[in-house]
Amino acid sequence: MALSPLIAAYLATVNPTERGMVGPETPQRPAGAVIWTVCADETRLAAVRALAARLVEDGELVTVLASLPQSNDPNFQITPNTKAATRAFIGHWKPDIVVWFGGVLDASTIFEINKSETPILLVEAKAAEFDLTAGRRVPGLMRSLFSSFSEILALDAQSAARIARFGVAEDKLRTTGPLEDGISPPSYNEAERADISLTLGSRPKWFAAHVPLNELSSVCAAHRHAARRAHMTLLILCPRNASDEQEIVTRLRADGLTVACREAEEQPRDATQVYVVGPEEGIGLWCRLAPITYLGGSLSDGLIPDPFSPATVGSAVLVGPHVNTHKAHYDRLLTASALNPFDTTKNFGPAVEALLATDLAAQLALNAWDATSRGADATNQLVSLVYKYLDGTAY
């Protein structure tokens, strides 16, 4: 691809601190096909692992090589950021395909890959990230960058529309949504689930997962509010820390609530208001038993369980205003209207009540299923494209 004099002049002025050089410590290229995946950050690695798993399942002799802008992990390479470093990287690894994850585009690297005639796929292309591309205001730069890609999978329709404005051919551009990131539904014991389900019966219930001690009073207040509207509502409560379990049971009983403790081998009865379970056995069982799951920590420090865990098994996700972990999964569900956020402790109880009393929980669960399974469809499309460019290559 011939660059305009203006773009070439811009690239000549760029003098970054060189990274990603091939050195004596760089491993040898493995046998078989090599797919080089360029990741903007570690959040993309889960999708890379899912892609690799799919290819391995199909019995392909293929190595998925992941690179990051910086990493101390020897399992990942450093993404080269200059023409010389990129040329050496390609010469050493001889990738059959490059998959560029994310819309932050590095002109020096991309143009050098393109000169090597290695196919480049841009996946999870997001409009908001294009604005972070260095030199984007140089006339013709963005058009040249997008024309460097053999295929482009846009994250959403808005991003696809912006890419199309740069002259990308219609047959090279498609909207797929986010890629699968390899999360599996949380594990559980089916025989145990069936047994406890019989014990609990059809009474209304909700699950508070990984609740820190400082959120206990808020969870109890929300439960009392919901129980006034939905008779016989049961709260299944799992502390964040096993060491807090006995104190939680003591405080709940002191507050006048009827409690059964799983660790003490107490069975929930019809009169039981709170069933305290331990965190060591995971949340997979309880997410499947309760149609609503509150993510503990979202009222305080934001250290929440992964919202995909309940979402993948059909439990509607209820979350407070603070989310500092699993942000990508939270954002995906929020965008898909697949969880129910509330902003203050005062609105916690009404939020539980609304999910217990209406079809909202079922709708959230349906939206969540769509949001979490859509990634598998996007990954299927990417795998098909990989095979398209590997087709006919002999190893």
Structure, described:
This protein is α/β, with parallel strands linked by helices. Helix content is 39%, strand content 16%. The protein has 15 helices and 14 strands. Helix 9 (216-229) crosses helix 14 (348-357). The longest helix is centred in the last third of the chain and has 31 residues, at 360-390. The model has no long low-confidence stretch (mean pLDDT 91).
Quick overview of this protein structure:
By secondary structure, the chain is of the alpha/beta class.
**Helix- and strand-based class?**
alpha/beta
User: What's the helical proportion of residues?
Assistant: 25-40%
End-to-end C-alpha gap? 29 Å
- Total of helices: 15
Largest sheet: 7 strands, parallel
CATH fold-level topology of the largest domain: Rossmann fold
Sum up the overall morphology in one term.
elongated
| pLDDT averaged residue by residue | 91
Blueprint (SSEs and pairs):
Layout: H1 5-13, E1 33-39, H2 45-57, E2 62-68, E3 77-78, H3 83-93, E4 97-101, H4 107-115, E5 120-125, H5 127-130, H6 141-147, E6 151-154, H7 157-164, E7 173-175, H8 190-200, E8 205-211, H9 216-229, E9 234-239, H10 245-254, E10 259-261, E11 274-276, H11 284-289, E12 292-295, H12 308-311, E13 316-319, H13 327-335, E14 339-341, H14 348-357, H15 360-390
Parallel strand pairs: 1-2, 1-4, 2-3, 4-5, 5-6, 6-7, 8-9, 8-12, 9-11, 10-11, 12-13, 13-14
Key attributes of the depicted protein:
Rossmann fold; elongated; alpha/beta; 7-stranded parallel β-sheet
